Amino acid sequence: MLRDMTSKNVFPDVLTFNTLINALCKDGMAKKAEAILEVMVQRGVGPNAVTYRTLMDGYCLLGHMDRAIEVCHSMVDKGIEPNIICFNILINGHCKNMNIEEAMNVFCEMPRKGLKPIIETYNTRLQGLFGVGRCSVAQGLLNEMQAWGQHPDFYTYWIWLDGLCKNRRIDEALLFEELECSGINPDITMHNILIHRFCKDGKVEMAKNLFGKLSHKGLWPDIVTYNMMVGGFCEQGLLGEAKELLVTPGYT
């Protein structure tokens, strides 16, 4: 389509090129996307901040952090200063590749650029810290963000609960019920995280107890909840209880 446009003297603008670059990056073809950027320049269409951010994200998705950083430097060389979104992209890329120290370095660079972390920045760092088992540091970060006036959102608490459960910090995770006092109402997905951990650890009675409280909280088990409970019962040889759940009205 791009070739067809140019052959008919319809010249693509930066939005057209950015759309194509975005599609290629999402399909894991960051190198081809960068070739499109070169075509842009050759045709006299100047890349903007979105162009570079999209390409950076494409390389981060592939785990090619060195190249993503080079793209960021190229952007600066063109006189475009990286904003908070650019830093979030780099932090997210480092965290997904378990390079937590590099993510911390990028985070520390932000204030020097006059940028203030936003909630997405903290959420990304939290997920990365829990991913490498650094639960205490993650808890400290949660306190830090509140001290800086950033209020945790629903996703922050979801990450926190999921991270604690995956690292088997069940006692701390059970405090999630206190979230209701903070105005955060844990939904069924949050409860499923705990039920899953209980079942995996063989604590089926605790899972059953939490399952029984759902209706009192105005929540309804979904297919994931039932599957985990049935699996937990079967693992413990409680086939009768598993069968009882299978014939529960509404379970399909």
Secondary structure elements and their pairing?
Elements: H1 2-7, H2 14-26, H3 30-42, H4 49-61, H5 65-77, H6 84-96, H7 100-112, H8 119-131, H9 135-147, H10 154-166, H11 170-173, H12 188-200, H13 204-213, H14 223-235, H15 239-246
Helix pairs in contact: 2-3, 2-4, 3-4, 4-5, 4-6, 5-6, 6-7, 6-8, 7-8, 8-9, 8-10, 10-12, 12-13, 12-14, 13-14, 14-15
Question: What's the short story on this structure?
Answer:
By secondary structure, the chain is mostly helical. It has helices spanning 2-7, 14-26, 30-42, 49-61, 65-77, 84-96, 100-112, 119-131, 135-147, 154-166, 170-173, 188-200, 204-213, 223-235, 239-246.
Task: Summarize this structure as a short list of keywords or feature phrases.
252 residues, mainly alpha
Question: In words, what does this structure look like?
Answer:
The chain is elongated, with a radius of gyration of 24 Å. Helix 4 (49-61) packs parallel to helix 6, helix 7 runs antiparallel to helix 8 (119-131) and helix 13 (204-213) packs antiparallel against helix 14. It is mainly alpha-helical and 252 residues long. It has helices spanning 2-7, 14-26, 30-42, 49-61, 65-77, 84-96, 100-112, 119-131, 135-147, 154-166, 170-173, 188-200, 204-213, 223-235, 239-246. The mean pLDDT is 88.
Structural category is mainly alpha
Shape: elongated
Mean pLDDT: 88
Strand element count: 0
Q: What is the chain-wise order of helices and strands?
A: HHHHHHHHHHHHHHH
Radius of gyration: 24 Å
Helix content: 55-70%
Number of helices: 15
Strand content bin: under 5%
- Major pleated sheet: none
Catalogue the unreliable spans: none
* First-residue to last-residue Cα separation: 46 Å
